Amino acid sequence: MARLCPAAPALLVSSLAVLLQTSLSVDHVPMLLWSTQRSQWNPDTAVHEGQVVSAQELTVFLQPLFTQNSRNLVLFLQDRLSIDDFTYFSESYGNKNPFQNVQEILQSSPSSLVLPAVDYKATRYLLTVLQESGDWKLTNVTNHNVSQLEVNASNPNLLVVQLPPLASDLKEISTLEAIAENDKIIGRVTMDLQEQGIHFSVIYTAMRPSRISRRTDVVAELRRQLMAAEEEDSLSYPPLNVTTGNYSCILFYASNFSLKANSSVLIDLTNATFLTQNVDISASECSDSNTTLSLKYTKPVNGISSLEIRFFMTNRFYEVSARKWSTLDSVEIVQDGEKFAKFNVSGISAPAEYSFHCQLVGTSNHYPARLVPSNNEAKNWDVFISELQIQGFNIINNQFSYASDCTGFFTPGIWMGLVTSIILLWILTYGIHMIMQLTTNSRFDDPKGPALSVPQTE
Q: How far apart are CA 309 and CA 342, in angstroms?
């Protein structure tokens, strides 16, 4: 029986490395598919070197999943993933292989397919495409444990596993650990389904490409990314839209929206907020001067029955600038209607006509925009929001306005260059000044005449 998966984990890494040169574009994400049933994909359908799978071609590759006898599909969605991740992290850290479970599963699966380069625009609405392809029973696996999940194998089941985000830290080693943790989740979920005797197929991909910082340049650079300029191309999915009548009053977007309770329980709200939109926004309020974005979740994880997150924004006139500014003043987290955590916000403001964008927002001291705990309960929460863009006033045509970015014009590199230039300029100025102070003698000794006598009083 012909199979598309590599014969060994090392060959998988080698095959991905061959395709690395032509598939490294940041517009592409890899997609790995495998199934417990044989002959899901024809060997003739294997992609050639350098091929970028478009949305239309991806539909053809996914077609066997819709026509198989046992229609149970597991979708592992990661926030960021690139073909470079497989080669770089697998080869750069010795015995630490963060994709060990994935490689072993591909090796042992009766049928598998590796697509090194899929147009990430095709994965934007992958979940929507899958839902429209059949009468699936959609189940969001939030606790990454399917051993207690009742799966009716007689009906089509679509299990969506939103993997924890990778961008929780700027350090490369933290990304390695996050990938390894996601690999364990994939292995654990796959093993639980196999132990239940369920036949299933798996899709493992990401919503957008990752950008790996090389070990010689680990320090991340916070770039000014004004998302309003090319909104259609930069957003992986539509922003959350709060409307009053036919008009939008709040727009909210984030590539990762995660919380951590008591430094142990990770709550990833990205999928529930933007993809499946299993969030209640009915308590949100809008006015010309005050806006409240209320996000209510029911049982986001085991042990928490309800969770509400509120964003409070104000629109004020400042005489100094002679214009109105919108400011995100505070963020509140209410757990189970009892535990109340409040955060003061620093560094999130924009002209009232603009939206606000920041690459990293959260409780960490290293983020450009911080959420500062203002009560004891808030100290039990860690908040991480990446690629935040929010607008609560003056929304036109249901789209973000021009974005005011949190990244300043004077970055650390610019300051270092300025300080160095000032020091060198000061040295040059001092040297020129000293040269200009040099003077010559007013009289010189003539060898043909009498000896020059210089009185001691001069």
A: 10
